[in-house]
Backbone:
């Protein structure tokens, strides 16, 4: 086994050295089930803080504990190590570096921090206006990418956990200070994430909290931070706005439980309920978020009975999730959707699509993709005319979207590239549909 060099002995991986915890008061910890763990998780990225290589130099056995009160996000910082090199320009100043990214007033005395956690557990309440809520049973939470949000549970059940989403702006009393503690998670979990400017007054925020009753005192409820999203409105002619999701994150202890879908649904419902908002858009979405958005938008369309009936004809039944009612003809053959039975075609009727897109406040490219997925789902694979119309519809959109790149190629290469892109898109549609149906 190779012996580590002197430099390696004094170098730590910042992602491993930094440990995060959402700390609850003792009585709140006593209300948790064994599967629930909110302390001792690590960041995905630390390069915005410690540099591109994500290394910290000058310490042996380095451990950086950054703890947050689970609701108010009051912070405690503790740096431990067995040895440190003599101070020099090459030894990293860990606290000095971190203090540039977290607001002043963080604790370094753990006892005082725990007293603050106890105090905040009772006194902390979410900022802003509640816009959405849902419930879960703590005893049956199951992790998975496509977890469905259960129906409302009995509030009298002590093991019912509530989740609430609140909308805030910079003008919401107390929120600006809360955001300064909250924003660190953007650097640690969103690749390429950066802090937003407090001088830009238009920012809006939606924050998701867990609301938990104490087993020992069911009349006491406490709030715990789960995740949040930042939103920015842009002018939309003639007198409305497009609301863009800029940052979106759910903290690791709450991931794979469907909370991302719930937060996205809260934002979408807020958009639908706001007459001044014309549509919801997303800024440069990561692949995981794009999948989350596709799944939730598809489920919403499949559950819209009027949209499905108009789009695919009377055989599109929304009561079973928008699925086609497959029956049997007198000859015993399976019955599939008839081409032209509804506005979806293919090809889809553009005027009808634009009316629905406007009513549902979905951005153009996203709505076209969703329509293409739904047509693919319902189309008879043996209908050559429908297959050809579908292929032309998708390729026309792809051609327009990639026009500048495609025009740099000669005609044969352009046609080949367009076909390859079409096949790739259809394969991805089938993958997404497989997660929804």
Residues:
């Amino acid at each position: 086994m190779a012996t580590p060099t002197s430099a390696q002995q004094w170098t730590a991986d910042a992602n491993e050295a930094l440990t995060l915890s959402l700390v609850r008061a003792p009585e709140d910890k006593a209300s948790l089930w064994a599967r629930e763990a909110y302390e001792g998780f690590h960041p995905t990225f630390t390069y915005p803080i410690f540099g591109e290589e994500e290394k910290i130099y000058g310490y042996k056995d380095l451990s950086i504990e950054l703890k947050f009160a689970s609701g108010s996000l009051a912070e405690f910082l503790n740096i431990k190590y067995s040895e440190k090199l003599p101070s020099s320009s090459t030894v990293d100043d860990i606290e000095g570096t971190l203090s540039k990214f977290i607001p002043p007033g963080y604790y370094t005395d753990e006892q005082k921090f725990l007293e603050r956690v106890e105090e905040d557990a009772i006194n902390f309440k979410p900022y802003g206006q509640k816009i959405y809520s849902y419930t879960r049973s703590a005893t049956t939470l199951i992790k998975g990418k496509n977890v469905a949000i259960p129906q409302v549970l009995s509030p009298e059940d002590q093991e019912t956990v509530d989740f609430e989403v609140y909308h805030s702006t910079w003008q919401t009393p107390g929120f600006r200070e809360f955001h300064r503690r909250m924003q660190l998670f953007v650097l640690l979990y969103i690749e390429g994430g950066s802090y937003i400017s407090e001088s830009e007054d238009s920012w809006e925020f939606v924050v998701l909290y867990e609301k938990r009753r104490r087993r020992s005192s069911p009349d006491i409820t406490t709030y715990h931070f789960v995740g949040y999203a930042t939103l920015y409105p842009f002018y939309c002619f003639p007198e409305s706005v497009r609301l863009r999701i800029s940052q979106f994150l759910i903290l690791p202890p709450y991931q794979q439980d469907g909370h991302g879908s719930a937060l996205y649904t809260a934002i979408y419902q807020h958009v639908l309920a706001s007459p001044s908002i014309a549509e919801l858009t997303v800024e440069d979405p990561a692949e995981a978020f794009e999948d989350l958005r596709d799944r939730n938008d598809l489920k919403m369309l499949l559950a819209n009975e009027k949209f499905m009936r108009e789009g695919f004809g009377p055989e599109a039944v929304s009561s079973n999730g928008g699925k086609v009612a497959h029956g049997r003809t007198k000859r015993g053959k399976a019955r599939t959707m008839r081409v032209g039975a509804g506005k979806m075609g293919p090809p889809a009727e553009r005027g009808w699509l634009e009316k629905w897109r406007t009513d549902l406040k979905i951005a153009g490219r996203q709505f076209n993709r969703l329509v293409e997925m739904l047509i693919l789902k319902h189309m008879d694979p043996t209908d050559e005319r429908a297959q050809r119309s579908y292929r032309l519809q998708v390729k026309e959109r792809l051609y327009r979207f990639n026009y500048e790149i495609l025009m740099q190629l000669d005609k044969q290469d352009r046609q080949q590239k367009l076909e390859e892109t079409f096949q790739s898109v259809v394969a991805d549609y089938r993958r997404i549909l497989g997660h929804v149906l």
In short: Residues 144-155, 318-336 have pLDDT under 50 and may be disordered. The chain has two domains: 10-284, 299-318+343-436. Residues 411-436 form the longest helix (26 residues). The CA atoms of residues 101 and 279 lie 33 Å apart.
